[in-house]
UniProtKB/TrEMBL annotation:
Protein name as catalogued: SDR family NAD(P)-dependent oxidoreductase
MF-aspect GO terms: oxidoreductase activity
Keywords, ordered alphabetically: Oxidoreductase
TM region(s), chain numbering: none
Organism: Antrihabitans spumae
Keyword Cell membrane (UniProt): no
Every Ketoreductase domain range: 6-192
Pfam families (alphabetical): adh_short_C2
Length: 246
C-alpha cells in the first residue's frame, strides 16, 4: 500500500487522527497538504514531515465550514502541486450542550458546517477535478454516532449520517475513476478524550469487543487501504472502525 509521489490533502490534519494519517501517508511516499484552522500547528507538523520523511508538506489555514475557505484551500493546493490524488475529509467537531432545547442556531450551524458542508464543497470541487484528470480517492471520516444517535450529540450524529449518505452519492457521481469511501470511527483516545466525563472511558471499553478505545495509529491501516490501489474495486463503502462496540 504505497503512495509514491501522490498528493494527499487532509483536513483537520495537524492533530489526532489527522496527524496520524498525514504521517502515514508521508511515510508511504506521498506529499501532503495539512489543513486546519490553526496555521502554527500545521506549520509545525509540516516541518516534521519534511525533516523525517523528506516529502513536500504544505500547511494551510482553513475553516472548512466556510465555503470561501474551502475554495481557497483547493486553489492553494493545486497551485502548489497541480493536483490532489487523495482527499481526506477528517475535520470534525461536536460541542457539548446542556440539553437539546438549548442548542443554539449558531452551534447547530457550526456542527453541520464542519462535519458536512465542508466535506461536500471540498469533495464536489476536487472530485470533479479528479474525474476530469487521472482519478483519485476521497475518504470521509465518519462516526459510529451516525447510526447510534442519542441526545448527547444529536447535531453531530445528523451531520455524520449525512456524511455517510454523501459518501454513497459521491461514489455514484464520480465513478468510474474516483473512489469515495468512509471510515466510521468509534471512540478514539485523541485530544478530544481529554474532555470526556469521569468514568466514560471505562464505560465505553466495557462495551467494546476488543476491550479498549481506539488509538490514533489504529486508523492508519484503513486510511492506507482506501488511499491506495489496494482498494481499487471498493467505492461507496462505509467501514466500521470501532473495536466492535455494542
Amino acid at each position: 500500500m504505497q503512495l509514491d509521489n501522490k498528493v494527499v490533502l487532509v483536513t483537520g490534519g495537524s492533530r489526532g487522527l489527522g496527524k496520524a494519517m498525514v504521517e502515514a501517508f508521508a511515510a508511504a511516499g506521498a506529499d501532503v497538504v495539512i489543513a486546519s484552522r490553526k496555521l502554527d500547528s500545521c506549520e509545525k507538523l509540516a516541518t516534521e514531515i519534511r525533516e523525517k520523511y523528506g516529502r513536500r508538506a504544505l500547511p494551510v489555514a482553513a475553516n472548512v465550514s466556510n465555503w470561501n475557505d474551502c475554495d481557497a484551500l483547493i486553489d492553494t493546493a493545486y497551485a502548489e502541486f497541480g493536483r490532489v490524488d487523495v482527499l481526506v475529509n477528517n475535520a470534525g467537531l461536536s460541542p457539548l450542550y446542556p440539553s437539546l432545547d438549548q442548542v443554539s442556531e449558531a452551534l447547530f450551524d457550526k456542527v453541520i458546517g464542519v462535519n458536512l458542508k465542508g466535506p461536500f464543497r471540498l469533495s464536489s470541487v476536487i472530485g470533479t477535478r479528479m474525474a476530469a484528470g487521472d482519478g483519485g480517492s476521497i475518504i470521509n471520516i465518519s462516526s459510529i454516532a451516525a447510526i447510534r444517535a442519542d441526545g448527547l450529540a444529536l447535531p453531530y450524529s445528523a451531520a455524520k449520517a449525512g456524511l455517510n449518505a454523501l459518501t454513497e452519492g459521491l461514489a455514484q457521481s464520480f465513478g468510474r475513476t474516483v473512489r469515495t469511501n468512509a471510515i466510521q470511527c468509534g471512540p478514539f483516545a485523541t485530544d478530544i478524550a481529554d474532555g470526556w466525563p469521569a468514568g466514560l472511558r471505562e464505560h465505553l471499553e466495557a462495551n467494546i469487543a476488543l476491550g479498549r478505545v481506539g488509538m490514533p495509529d489504529d486508523i492508519i491501516g484503513a486510511a492506507m487501504y482506501f488511499a491506495s490501489d489496494a482498494s481499487a474495486y471498493c467505492t461507496g463503502a462505509i467501514l466500521r472502525l470501532d473495536g466492535g462496540i455494542k
